[in-house]
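Hey team,

Filing this mostly as a record. A colleague (T.K.) asked me to run one chain through the structure pipeline before their review meeting, and I want the input and output archived in the tracker in case anyone asks later how it was produced. No errors, nothing strange. Just documentation.

Input sequence:
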Amino acid sequence: MAKVVYQVVEHDGGWAYTSNGVFSETFPSHDAAHAAAERAANEQKVPGRTEEIQYEDGQGEWHNETAKGDDRPTTEVVDRKT
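Output structure:
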């Protein structure tokens, strides 16, 4: 099972959370960014529908897969408060 980690960090004059190198919007306080990260982490765990997906890889080849709606990652929120 995959694991998604959200890190709460200082960013752009405020606070944000980041995961896999992508930042959220900037929040005015650490607590607001932490709460938003918790919401995002909880949303990742909600099951969805099983669906067929199609995607293109880095070499330009197309693939078809079944994305199981109940295959959800575990999540964690980590603070980087200074």
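Quick notes for T.K.: The first strand starts at residue 3 and ends at 11. The helical segments are 30-44.
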